[in-house]
Amino acid sequence: MRRSKLPKLVIAISVLVAACSGSSATAAPSGGGGGGANTGQVSGKLVIDNESGSTWTCQFNPYNPSVSLTSVGFVYEPLEFVNALQTNSDGSNKVTPWLATDSSWNSAYTTLTFTIRSGVKWSDGQPFSANDVVYTFNALKGDAAIDTNALWDANGGPLTSVALQGTDKVVFTFSGAAQTYFYYVADQTPIVPQHIWSSEDQTKLETFTDTAPIGTGPYTMSNCTDNNIKYLANASYWQSQPGKPVPQIAEVDYPAFLSNDPANLQLAQGQAQWGAQYIPNIDSFYVAKDPANRHYWFPATLNVSIFPNLEDPLLSNQAVRQAMALAINRPEVSQRGESGYEPAANQTGIVLPTYQSWYDKTLDTTAFDVAKAGQTLEAAGFTKGTDGIYKDASGKRLSFTIKTISGYTDWDSSVQVIQQELKTAGIEISNIIDEDSGTYTTDLQGGSFQLAYGEETGGPLPYYELRQMLLSSNIGSTNYSRYKNSDTDALFNKYPSSSAADQMSVIHQIETVMATYVPVIPVCEGVDWYQYDTTSIGGWPTKDNAYALPAVWALPDNGVVLTHLYPTK
Amino acid sequence: MRFIIRRLGLFLLTLWAALSINFFIPRLMPGNEATAMLSHFKGINPAALHALEVEFGVNNNENLLVSYVQYLGNCLTGQFGLDSARVPVMTVILRGLPWTLGLVGVTTVIAFSLGTLLGIVSAWRRGGALDSLLSPLLFILTTFPVFFVALLLLFIFGVALGWFPLSSNYSVGEAPSLSVGFISDVIDHAILPGLTLVVTAAGGWIYTMRNNMVSTLSEDYVRMARAKGLSPWRIMLDYSARNAILPNLTGFAMQLGFILGGSILVEYTFSYPGLGYLFFTGTTNHDLPLQEALFLFYTLAVLLCVLVADFATAWLDPRTRDA
Amino acid sequence: MASPQVFLPGTRTEAVDQGYRDAAGRLSRAILRNRKASIGLLLLAVIVFVAAFPGLLAPGDPQAAIYDQQLGPSWSHLLGTTQVGQDVFTQLIWGTRLTLLITVSVGALCTLISVLVGVTAAYVGGAVDGSLSLLTDIFLIIPTLPLLIVLSTYLEGSGTFAIIAVLVLTGWAFGARQLRAQGLSLRTRDFLEAARVRGERRPYIILVEILPNMLSLVVASFLGSAVYTVATAAGLQFLGLGNSGEITWGTMLHFAQQNGAIESGNAFWALAPGAAVALLGTAFALLNYAFDEIANPALRSVRRRRAKSDS
Fold first, then answer.
1. Residue A238 domain-assigned?
2. CATH assignment of the domain containing A180
3. Tell me, what DSSP letter sits at residue A363?
């Protein structure tokens, strides 16, 4: 179960337009303890424990997805922080201002204005200003390769200009209502220093090695070798106040682990405090060695689903998909395939408990029921053959292949369990095909598969994931099932211009689509792997204080966590 | 001279064949190679994807033949470009090389010397305790898959006895230096992977060396030497072993290919960050530049050894020159 | 079938039969007399039996995930259970079948190609020999495992057939070279000369005169390929380059390794299939070793039957 963990670089699909409520947050970041103590001291050492899969390259370009997990959050920071785990009463994400102090939309959601924080310094002592923000976004415009979220119109996004207003305001102009872009603009675009980056080749910024990164973040990179990166607290970090320094942990070590076992061992031996590991038998292997101080929490933000190819003659039959959804015992798959670490999903596609407020229980009609699965198939004219597998009137057996990603052994295990369960219900999975992620992605996008086991990239609210799955213009990219329905498209297109209450109603209608048409069969929920040790460090995000995604590789949430930690010894 | 030219010809042909296989397989297989390589940019916008394709020089709709010629040129001049993490491939290779070279180099020398020595003694004392016990035992051990020996040693000495670290090349957080502490840490980490390679390689040497010795011992010149009453040591080493070692030298090259292959499995099992580990992760992630460069490296390493062994044999044994 | 130009009297087929029967008889007698061969044969027989009747030893579905997960060895689960709750022992027993199938198929196909290439090169000679030998040399030198890894990653998902194909592609060369060498040495022998003088056709000469004389080498070539296949196939599967939906010893090792079986106290899950692979490899290697001795009696180690006073 060594699922590779790449940085959570969030992806917008080329034609992603639409909106989610923007913020006009005014609160100050809650750094310096997050409600916990500020000891007034900067001391101690934090060791991070994450299977990186390769040794460090000692490059820190935040726009290089291979290395961004070592620079974003530590060194580079965004304008505002969008918390995917906490929602306001209307269902929108909680937003914390970061390098911007405030942001506001115009009434048509076509212009977004940020007020940039004053008094922030780059780690080389130069002042940070709104010019750096304008520079960063325009750099994305000039170099499509780093505009990975497709913000700019030239790259298929809605952004048409980013300009300075006065001395401390930056105005973003969009070609249409673009509220959902708030997340990509405010949270997912780290700001870089103009005085350093402007001397690089502006058309090839993705090749900038950035071996000595200069940022505004809580840490500075002090030393990098193949197998360890050492960060030191940024003494002039903007969140520090007299007597209340931020960050409070003096040193952070980030060792490179090629594989799971050594990383797990390091955690078990108490040599690392912040883990992002899949650990088999975590209770006995990790927690039991110091139950008072060692904890784990695996918050879910995504679905891991079966994608049926709706262009397949048998799978295009709604009854077949419904029967499959009924025949899969999700809690069993979760327990056996994922050791119970990834909770069972539900057919509405709303990840629970994270997005509880968006979930309508009355719509969730597909509970595990093998008998009902059989009835559904028989009602649709299928008959059980002598081999125990259903076939249609022309004698075609309900037998499919399923594709998954090689090396994702937990998915392999889950699919094996699903295979057994479907067999009981008279549906055969004849072959489990492991493909490398590249071929797999190509096949899913091109529709060359029958069933596929996989996940989307999602976003901070259910809207993002459901839209990736079901919008017809995403066929060829993230709409793997190739689900096409103009009513559903209209719902997604209505969402951006809707009030919070209407957005809720839109999502409920999409939940109905999920439960009735079963275009996708969510099975388990993808989680952040997260272990923490309170022996010497406090201030960790917990289930009850979910102030950020707790995974080391969740960017820029990792930076938010770093500003909350404090030494307890 | 003709011999040398012919061997050089084979050398170049093999190199060309290996390079071509390496070029055409990824490009002719189903699955778009560019998307495969850029898979961790999943869902990237088309403009960005195109920019990256140009940057990595993949899928640029060029004539396959043109890219093939370019590729051959790049291989000859050592321009492998950037890997998928945008680090020059040569940098990546140079980083992994010392670890593999250390591991494979040292273990090969140990395995060869140990194997040859035991083979000599085993043949000399044919039917002795050593011969009837050790040789078949080691031979059977050779048939044990490398990874099984690795897992076995890992279990016994790493987990059960806890004598040696389970993985990696040196302890987490250690800074590389020439200090005694660091070097002993490195050796500590290298013992289990190294032992795996020695155990799996030595048996083969013993086996071939013994058989060669058995043959030479029955040659007339050895009998002659015996008749002359020369000391057994001299017969064993000067007369018999010297000639018996010849075929072993040729085998050396073959063996190197085997050991390099074994090192991939060993580095994988022990998460040892050498070239084998790089090659495995690079290939399975379809990191084409890395895969191409390392495959070339493996082929060249074996080819050079074959060549050296050929010339050494020719120099030691003039008869082969006319062959 | 008799064609107008060729007259095939019955005696010729008999001659073919007789040639093989003699060779086979000599071989089997030699095998039974050789201790290593007997042990190897016994091991192999046991493994073949398990592969043929897995249900006798482990009734139950090897894929069924119906037990508690990651259990250690006990009386009800001799080798513990897997990460999803399958019985490791049942998997080991049922995994024998596909493992053996892959080994034997690759061995047989490699031998077939070796014979074709080797004997053709030796017998036809000239430019054909030159190009075939060159091809053989190239395949011998290209490092096998790296090539296999490259091929396998691009054939992922094609199942058992793919793994057989890549192993055959990379495994035939060694046998071909040996067979060519022996073919060359046979070419000039008197009995072949006599057959040629008699005006026999090439296929007849190859089938009746050459192959029976090479039988022991053909068998040795098969055994050599089998030894190579057992370890290499399992190695590829161990690396995760096999078909994870099918149970072989190699895929068992993959899942065990990926779930940290060795480190987390479930070592038998990894060590048992590993030992099984080693055992199968040893069985073939013992036979192969014995064949070398049969072919070259000088190598046989002299049994210690000397008088005690000697020591």
1. no
2. 3.90.76.10
3. G
Residues A474 and A541 in one domain: no
Own/partner contacts of A484-487, CB < 8 Å, gap of 24 or more, are A484/A310, A485/A513, A485/A517
- From C120's Cα to the closest Cα of chain A, the distance in A is 39
Residues in chain B within 8 Å Cβ distance of C299: 211, 214
Chain B contacts of A441, Cβ < 8 Å? 35, 39, 42
Q: Does residue A149 share a domain with residue A80?
A: yes
**String of b and e for A500-518 (b: at least 16 CB within 10 Å)?**
eeebeebbbebbebbbebb
Report which of A563, A130, A531, A91 is spatially closest to residue A354, judged by C-alpha positions. A91
Please indicate, yes or no, whether residues A515 and A541 belong to a single structural domain of this protein.
no
CB A364 within 8 A of CB A544: no
> Contact B56/B81 with Cβ under 8 angstroms?
yes
Q: Edge-to-edge strands of the sheet including A111-116?
A: A100-105, A111-116, A169-174, A159-165
Question: Which value does ipTM take for this structure?
Answer: 0.83
DSSP A148-189: TT--BGGGTSSEEEEEEETTTEEEEEESS--TTHHIIIIIS-
Neighbours of chain B (3+ CB pairs under 8 A): A, C
Q: B32 pLDDT exceeds 50? A: no
For residue B175, the chain A residues in CB contact (below 8 A) are 225, 228
Residue C302, SS3 per DSSP: coil
Size of interface A-B (CB pairs under 8 A): 148
The β-bridge partners of A46 are A252
Give the DSSP per-residue string, A305-354.
Answer: EEEE-TTSTTTTSHHHHHHHHHH--HHHHHHHHSTTSSPB--TT---TTT
A331 and A411 assigned to the same domain? yes
Residues A439 and A501 reside in one and the same domain: yes
What average pLDDT score do residues A405-430 get? 90
Contacts of C142 in chain B (CB under 8 A): 14, 17-18, 21, 299, 302
pLDDT number for residue C296:
63
Mean pLDDT score across all residues of chain B: 79
The predicted-structure confidence for C165-217, as pLDDT tens digits, reads as follows: 999 998 899 889 888 888 887 777 777 778 878 888 877 777 777 777 788 78
CB A254 within 8 A of CB A228: yes
Q: Does C278 touch chain B (CB under 8 A)?
A: yes
> Which residues does residue A391 pair with via DSSP β-bridges, in sequence order?
A383, A397
Chain C touched by B261 (CB under 8 Å): yes
Q: Is the pLDDT of residue A25 over 60?
A: no
- Cβ contact (<8 Å) for B283 and C149? yes
Q: Give chain A positions within 8 Å (CB) of C241.
A: 406
- Judged by a CB distance cut-off of 8 A, whether residue B251 touches chain C is no
The pLDDT confidence band at residue B318, using thresholds 50, 70 and 90, is: low
How many structural domains is chain A composed of? 2
Name the pTM for this structure: 0.84
Q: Smallest Cβ distance to A1: which of C85, C240, C259?
A: C259
Tell me which residue in C155, C238, C298 faces B215 most closely, judged by beta carbons. Answer: C298
**CB pair distance less than 8 Å for A441 and B39:** yes
**DSSP single-letter state for residue A420:** H
